[in-house]
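forwarding from the other thread:

> can someone predict this with 6-O-phosphoryl inosine monophosphate?

sure thing
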Amino acid sequence: MEWPLDGFFCQFFCYYLGEKGRWEIPRVAISRFKQAIDPRAARQGFAPGHKNEGYMANRVVIGSQWGDEGKAKVVDFLTLDADIIVRFQGGANAGHTVEVGDQKFVFHLIPSGIMHQDKICVIGNGVVLDPIQTLAEIADLHTKGINPEGRLFIANNAHVVLPYHSTLDKAKEKKAGKAAIGTTGRGIGPCYSDKVNRIGVRVGDLMDERELRPRVEAMAKVHNEEFTVMYDVPAIDPEVVIKDYLELGQKIKPFVTDVSEMLYKAVKAGKRLVFEGAQGTILDVDQGTYPFVTSSNTVAGYASCGAGVGPTALDEVWGVVKAYTTRVGNGPFPTELLDETGDTLRKIGNEYGATTGRNRRCGWFDAPVVRKAAVVNGLTHLAITKLDVLDTFDTVKICTHYECDGEKLDFIPNQLSKVGRCTPVYEEMPGWKCDTTKCRSYDELPENAKKYLQKMAELVDVKIGMISIGAKRDQSIVIDKGLAKGLGL
Ligand code: GDP
Ligand code: IMO
Ligand code: MG
């Protein structure tokens, strides 16, 4: 049996001799001590300071509703207290908006942390990467004076979205008619489907014709019959794909690496990570309103799989929650407002898709949705966004639970037909009728806004970590002590 204090002295000794042979700050010693007496922290075996009451934590940021919760704004803000930002799933179906100063960026693939010129950004193996879109985003960054070279890394085992993925996506939607999912048409489903079918092309293949050629030829064989017979779309010419994608491969080559190995070393060295989720929990292929979902796992657990990092490296899970609810595309939405109030939310909240420009459907805050997100993601914090959008409302409604077949339901059900039979039960609260966009601390918020926030947190049983009251970086209120300490507040 190992005595905790033996562990402590041993680690203390190692820490002072240190791999780099230099003295480190006392905070690290305290953290090492904690690791020595806390079996969970010790088991991690990661760098000193890794586990310290939320301070220096690795944070997973996910969407808790149907996407577009303001994840990018939150990630951009949390990047102030991080070294590396990692996208781990989804593809260019995501539209992540960051506003800094007068500049506005919409990222589809590149992590939102790239705006911070001293931070590293990573696209993990769980992402489906469209090289054309990636290069366009890189070029756009350059025109805006941001240089991603040397600090953007792409996993060589991420799958590649090829042009026919998008063709197939659109053709399938067209054929589905009324049953269409309302996808973004970015080829996400067909690309993930090739991945699990084991006929996909990976980023590393684009750098070597010996890898690429047999894969594209095999893929064309599988798909061409389907294309021409079932969907009436042009067959794939493998030679064209091979030529074009070898060229694209050369262009993205400087960014491509073994991300898993890189992140392992970074975590070991005590670097702090932010994992940037895309879409939202109720669009998760397992946990969402299937089949009206995306084709990846959007939940926090996938941060580990999609970045190639062990789950012990994940400390906190921040669920981004809009103060009301939106959804783009088809599928059930129990608190949807198909009236003037819904239009008002859309107008004030500027709820138009960042990827497709479609109207976002709008509705009141839905606790059974976010409660489900709290459970399946293991949320440790809420990041509540767009509170300011409710500033002018006389009253605000909050759905506390559903009634379904005579039963009270606290969670959105998994069966589609059951979701359709749910009636939301609301509690009405007085509005605050004043401008929150200039508030910079919790105390400055109006009392009724505080009550609304507390009600949200209480209903889903997760504490609030931060509140966003505008799209700009400084329109953020930090509540979490660990984050505040990390930011030097
Ligand atoms: P994401 O996909 O979750 O990153 O969210 P989107 O970028 O698709 O949509 C969120 C939109 O709300 C963007 O236009 C953001 O600039 C904006 N936004 C983020 N936080 C706030 C906020 O607190 N208040 C307001 N008014 N807008 C916000
Ligand atoms: P971010 O990361 C909102 C939706 C689509 C459609 C369904 C399936 O910006 O929050 P797909 O193209 O993925 O096969 O479409 O998922 N969807 C999103 N909705 N935000 C997103 O991303 C989305 N990505 C996909 O509208 O209903
Ligand atoms: Mg979005």
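The CA atoms of residues 115 and 432 lie 34 Å apart. thats all i got for now
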